[in-house]
Every structure is written in structure tokens, then in C-alpha cells.
């Protein structure tokens, strides 16, 4: 009888150890959002909008420490000129929902909970405002 109890105790211990290892491995995977991204495409009501070369220089750098930096550019008579930067923090809330905080810790702080969808080496954000639909696509550098 003691051998049976010992067997079940060892079996339970081994199974518990294996399931614990599995969950540790999955939690250590890197978030898909981390990386450097550039503005790739823009859509309004399903129709692609043209982006100039300067628009395509707009870059978001998503860091693994929960921070991000954005750089924006515009065309000034054929020359791409910096249109400023923005920074903040991000957090994955699950189910492709991310909390984005612009200007974290400043009087201009703005918090958005945004659904971000991933397809291959791109991600996109889609917003519906009444009868209008906007979609912005970024590509991984």
C-alpha cells in the first residue's frame, strides 16, 4: 500500500513540475509589439490613401521596458523635415488590447486603450467614427 501511495505522490509531483515549466516558458515570450515600426499604409473607408516618402519615415520604437518613442516627418518642398517626436509608455492588457500612455507623467498625459492586430510583419490599428473607418498599417523594420 505504501508503494502505491509513493507512486501516486511521485506521479503528481512530476506532472505538477511539468505543467509549471510549460507555463514559465510561455510567459517568457516576447510581445509582438516590441521592435521598430514605420508607417506603411493608410486607409479611409477601405480605400488606400497615398503616403509620401516623408510620411513613410514616421517611426515608432517600442521598447521591452514598456516605453516607446515616435518620430514624425513632413515634406517641405521636397525635403523631409522632422515634425517632432512623442514618447510614453505601453502595456499589453491581453486580447490584442494595449494601453498607450502619451506624455506619461506630464500635464499633457493622454491614455488610450487600443486594439492592435498583427499580420505577418505588420500591425494595424482600425478606428470607426460614425460612418468613417480609418486604418493605419505599420511594418516592422
From TrEMBL:
Record-linked Pfam families: Lipocalin_4
The organism's place on the tree of life at top rank: Bacteria
InterPro entries attached to this UniProt entry: Lipocalin-like
Signal sequence annotation: 1-19
Domain called Lipocalin-like: residue spans: 33-109
Keywords of the record: Signal
Name listed for the protein in its UniProt record: Lipocalin-like domain-containing protein
Organism of derivation: Hyunsoonleella aestuarii
Amino acid at each position: 500500500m505504501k508503494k502505491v501511495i509513493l507512486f501516486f505522490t511521485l506521479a503528481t509531483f512530476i506532472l505538477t513540475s511539468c505543467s509549471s515549466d510549460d507555463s514559465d516558458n510561455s510567459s517568457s515570450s516576447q510581445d509582438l509589439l516590441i521592435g521598430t515600426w514605420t508607417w506603411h499604409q493608410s486607409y479611409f473607408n477601405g480605400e488606400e490613401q497615398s503616403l509620401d516618402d516623408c510620411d513613410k519615415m514616421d517611426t515608432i520604437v517600442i521598447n521591452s521596458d514598456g516605453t516607446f518613442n515616435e518620430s514624425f516627418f513632413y515634406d517641405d518642398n521636397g525635403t523631409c523635415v522632422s515634425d517632432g517626436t512623442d514618447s510614453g509608455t505601453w502595456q499589453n492588457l491581453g486580447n490584442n488590447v494595449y494601453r498607450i500612455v502619451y506624455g506619461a507623467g506630464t500635464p499633457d498625459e493622454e491614455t488610450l486603450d487600443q486594439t492592435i492586430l498583427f499580420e505577418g510583419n505588420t500591425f494595424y490599428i482600425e478606428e470607426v467614427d460614425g460612418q468613417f473607418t480609418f486604418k493605419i498599417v505599420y511594418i516592422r523594420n
